[in-house]
Design a protein that fits this description.
alpha/beta; Rossmann fold; 7-stranded mixed beta sheet; 6 helices; globular
């Protein structure tokens, strides 16, 4: 279980919501993308807590690259962090790709207030039959998925045919990829990031009531 020294915290302690974010499969919790998201949400008056799964913490300590832990380990890591932060409806969980997917698997069990997935991996690229959506049909937690229209892990045409819970809202970011970065012919990265942050803040205002 991560200790307080393993966490990155942005935003005011007395914020109405705490947003807990986990990283994607191949990059740590302090990438430029994760930094920008944390700063943006903290700037909107929220407390943002970031943590790393055991395999990523081990990489930081040893320098050796390791594949992601198996799903039970990742799920337990989420549950441990949620418990350590007090749980409850004032906690929103999520993250980038793998981090958001694992959060979606424990959100109902943990009874958190909301879920935010930044680039959900609906299926591996080019493998449309290998869906990671079964649990999304019955998800009870209010959920926002922010997805790029050029994301090979799930395009608008792919997702249109999925059975998704009515609690799930999808915000499509034009011309963005799985990293929520725009194509070279589209608008700038700052404008795209602003749209991502604005969508998350709008969703979280509803969660906060």
């Amino acid at each position: 279980m991560p200790t307080p020294d393993d966490l990155l915290v942005d935003g005011p302690e007395a914020a109405p919501l705490t947003v807990v974010l986990a990283h994607g499969a191949g990059a740590p919790m302090h990438t430029p993308f994760m930094n920008a998201i944390a700063r943006g949400l903290a700037g909107g008056g929220l407390r943002v807590v970031r943590f790393e799964f055991p395999y990523m913490r081990a990489r930081r300590q040893t320098g050796a690259r390791r594949p992601p832990d198996r799903e039970p380990v990742l799920r337990q890591a989420w549950l441990d962090v949620i418990t350590g932060l007090g749980g409850g409806g004032r906690l929103v969980i999520g993250g980038k790709s793998l981090g958001g997917r694992m959060a979606s698997l424990v959100a109902d069990e943990a009874a958190v207030g909301g879920l935010v997935c930044l680039g959900y991996p609906f299926h591996p690229p080019g493998q449309l039959a290998r869906l990671r959506t079964a649990h999304l049909a019955t998800l009870r937690t209010p959920t926002l998925i922010v997805q790029g229209t050029r994301d090979p892990f799930g395009t608008p045409s792919d997702v249109a045919g999925y059975d998704l819970s009515p609690q799930i809202r999808i915000e499509w970011i034009p011309e963005a990829d799985h990293s929520l970065a725009p194509s070279v012919r589209a608008r700038g990265a700052n404008e795209t990031m602003n749209q991502v942050v604005s969508a998350v803040l709008a969703f979280l205002r509803n969660v906060a009531g």
